[in-house]
């Protein structure tokens, strides 16, 4: 694709990405909500108080890759860690899980908001009002007493990727030792913050963007409207998946999971500084990062998408048991490559064709809104004599035939 067409596509995808993101008001409301939960859990008099509980975002909310659901009435899922610096020596995972749940139930409002009074497999879920359109998944965990210092130092040190010290121990009802072991060394290990550091190191493409590492772990950092190319591409990939698997012909339970999409995209990212180049390169390389390894436990060769901070963990481990998960992932990659080619080689087909193509991939409403904003932006540029139109395609840019400003009667 030529530079003019690429610039236009880049502009449209950036606006589209902004519309896929949650709004600043939604972001601030969520932060206010989980800060309030953290204050309640850590309040003096709480059974958790001696262990300095702290709520920290994890997952897509922390990575800046959260994506609005297709339907406005569906909830935004916000993943959080409730981190304690220690515990009573006799506590098992079950004790910790129950203690966090009991403290939430002591608050009359939070008790009514709990999705289940027994809690989920790992988390306690707080469902907010229909107007808020989000829920909080709170994961109880234990960390090193120096965790906060280690987290800050690790994210301020760009070169040293010492992620193991950022691991936490979590509660999991399906763990064999859930109600047995008091020694946290036997508890399930999880490292969302180590993964976040790895992701941001992949995402940062220049020293100007170093802020992302140091600010990404601040639980109340400002809303990030401007995103790095990798963040935007992950949002676009997740929405493409959601649209494809919203069809009745698929079992949505087996659609590609976000952690695999994010990991493969991050590995494939080549530090491109614009969305189009990043998107094209990522999509063309994603499947090459899916490995095939021999599993000595099962005696079979399996597809493998390794956790970048724990090579022994396979994010695609369920593909062996549920074959449809693997089939769906490769079907999605095929469709993704096909759809991207339609955009790449559509430079002579005009804006209407591009709108149709993007609408099929990302949804009519969000794409139409993006094109409306794109049109309004170009109207302003045109009025200032800064927009030109490519002959034959109608694509707008800095190259082509100058577009005269409308001269309505009364403005002469």
From TrEMBL:
Q: Which InterPro entries match?
A: DncV-like_NTFase, NT_2-5OAS_ClassI-CCAase
The Cyclic GMP-AMP synthase DncV-like nucleotidyltransferase domain sits at 53-138
Name the chemical reaction catalysed here: GTP + ATP = 3',3'-cGAMP + 2 diphosphate
Key words of the record = Antiviral defense, ATP-binding, Magnesium, Metal-binding, Nucleotide metabolism, Nucleotide-binding, Nucleotidyltransferase, Transferase
- Gene Ontology BP, a term: defense response to virus
A GO molecular function term, named singly, is: nucleotidyltransferase activity
Per its record, how is this protein called by name? Cyclic GMP-AMP synthase
Write down the species.
Cellulophaga baltica
């Amino acid at each position: 694709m030529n530079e003019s067409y690429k610039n236009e596509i880049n502009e449209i995808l950036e606006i589209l990405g902004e519309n896929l993101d949650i709004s600043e008001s939604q972001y601030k409301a969520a932060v206010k909500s989980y800060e309030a939960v953290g204050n309640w859990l850590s309040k003096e008099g709480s059974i958790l108080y001696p262990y300095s509980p702290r709520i920290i975002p994890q997952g897509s909310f922390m990575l800046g890759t959260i994506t609005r659901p297709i339907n406005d009435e569906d909830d935004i899922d916000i993943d959080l860690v409730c981190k304690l610096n220690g515990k009573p020596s006799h506590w098992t995972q079950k004790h910790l899980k129950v203690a966090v749940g009991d403290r939430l139930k002591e608050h009359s409002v939070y008790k009514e908001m709990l999705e289940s009074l027994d809690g989920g497999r790992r988390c306690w879920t707080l469902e907010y009002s229909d107007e808020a359109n989000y829920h909080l998944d709170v994961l109880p965990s234990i960390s090193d007493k120096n965790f906060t210092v280690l987290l800050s130092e690790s994210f301020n040190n760009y070169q040293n990727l010492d992620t193991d010290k950022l691991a936490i121990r979590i509660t999991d009802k399906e763990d064999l030792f859930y109600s047995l072991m008091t020694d946290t060394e036997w508890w399930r290990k999880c490292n969302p913050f180590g993964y976040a550091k790895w992701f941001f190191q992949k995402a940062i493409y220049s020293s100007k963007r170093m802020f992302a590492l140091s600010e990404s772990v601040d639980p109340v950092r400002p809303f990030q409207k401007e995103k790095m190319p990798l963040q935007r591409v992950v949002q676009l990939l997740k929405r493409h998946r959601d649209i494809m698997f919203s069809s009745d012909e698929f079992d949505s339970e087996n659609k590609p999971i976000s952690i695999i999409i994010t990991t493969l995209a991050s590995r494939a990212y080549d530090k491109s500084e614009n969305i189009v180049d990043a998107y094209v390169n990522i999509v063309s390389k994603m499947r090459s990062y899916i490995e095939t390894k021999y599993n000595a436990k099962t005696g079979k060769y399996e597809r493998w998408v390794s956790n970048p901070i724990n090579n022994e963990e396979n994010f695609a481990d369920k593909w062996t048991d549920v074959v449809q998960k693997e089939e769906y992932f490769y079907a999605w990659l095929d469709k993704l490559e096909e759809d991207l080619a339609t955009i790449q080689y559509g430079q002579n087909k005009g804006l209407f064709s591009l709108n149709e193509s993007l609408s099929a991939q990302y949804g009519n409403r969000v794409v139409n809104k993006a094109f409306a904003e794109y049109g309004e932006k170009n109207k302003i540029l045109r009025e200032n004599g800064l927009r030109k139109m490519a002959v034959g395609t109608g694509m707008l840019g800095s190259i082509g035939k100058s577009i005269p400003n409308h001269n309505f009667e009364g403005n002469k």
